[in-house]
Amino acid sequence: MATTGATFGVLSTFDHTSQDWISYKSRLSQWFIANDINDQTDKSAVKRRAILLSALSESSFKLASDLALPDKVEELEYVKIIKIFDDHFIPKRLGFAEKSTFYSATQRPGESHTQWAARIRGLATHCGFKNLEEALLDKFIMGMVAGREKDKLFAQNQEDLTLAKAIDLAESVRCARRATAAQAPGASAAGAGADVAATGPDSVFNISKKEKCSVCGFTNHKSNQCGYKNYKCKKCNRKGHLRKMCTFKDAVKFVEEGYEDEGDDVLTG
User: Fold this and answer.
1) pLDDT at 85 (0 to 100)
2) pLDDT > 90 fraction of the chain, expressed in percent and rounded
3) Which residue has the higher pLDDT, 202 or 53?
4) Is residue 198 part of a domain?
5) From CA 65, how far away is CA 229, in angstroms rounded?
6) What is the distance between the alpha carbons of residues 222 and 202, in angstroms, rounded to a whole number?
7) pLDDT of residue 36
8) pTM of the prediction?
């Protein structure tokens, strides 16, 4: 919503059912700064109270009114309305519980090192660490997925290492590892060999290594699964195999009319 007298920006409506109060409060503070609304220009904070209450959705205004009882929310000081919402929307943080979550975190599969570092920063927000940088660096390295990146960081002098340097070093090792794997000797040849094997006539059915079907001679299926098992041989007129698989030495060349070995020509060329 646009506010009368506003110079910069647009202040949106706050609806507690779909928006985060902490984020909205931060945006509200920035909007006040952009429009020069502060303790000097708004000493009684009446304008800030009016702006905040006007920015609430109907359900959020009703909530604010209920939380303010027995007082009227429109008569409360601006800072008290902020505190009412803070107490209601911001959960109580227990330092050791937050630290437990922080220390138990590990890098997820597929999570980049920058994403992992950003996640532990968020987890450390309410931990109250006396030395935040040291705690973040330790967790970043200790919680990393096992691999060359972690091994490299373990070998570093911790006195010279910062979280930013650790992230850069881990990313450098990761990039080098991928490049080495892609250019490894024989990698291309192996890939080419695999392609040839995949397209070669023998590899499709792996004739030399698999048992041939007694019906058609191919090796990609069993005889009882062969699509030609009900065809009659053009050589012996017996059902159950094609001409090229016929084993009857004294068989006569005879084909029963209407039941010709249709697949024989396809298979033998």
Assistant:
1) 94
2) 50
3) 53
4) no
5) 83
6) 17
7) 92
8) 0.45
One domain, residues 74 and 139: no
Structure tokens at 231: 């065809």
- Report residue 232: phi and psi, to 5°: -105, 140
What does the angle CA 25 – CA 31 – CA 33 come to, to the nearest 5 degrees?
A: 110
- Asked whether residue 75 falls in the same domain as residue 102, the answer is no
Q: Is residue 8 part of a domain?
A: no
**What Å distances lie between residue 127 and 97, 98, 131, 133, CA to CA?**
8, 5, 11, 12
- Residue 53 near residue 74 (C-beta atoms within 8 A): yes
In this prediction, residue 250 carries a pLDDT of 60
Domain that includes residue 54, residue range: 21-89
Q: How far apart are CA 222 and CA 116, in angstroms?
A: 51
Q: How many domains does the chain have?
A: 3
Within-domain flag for 206: no
- pLDDT higher than threshold 60 for residue 190: no
**Would you state the pLDDT for residue 176?**
87
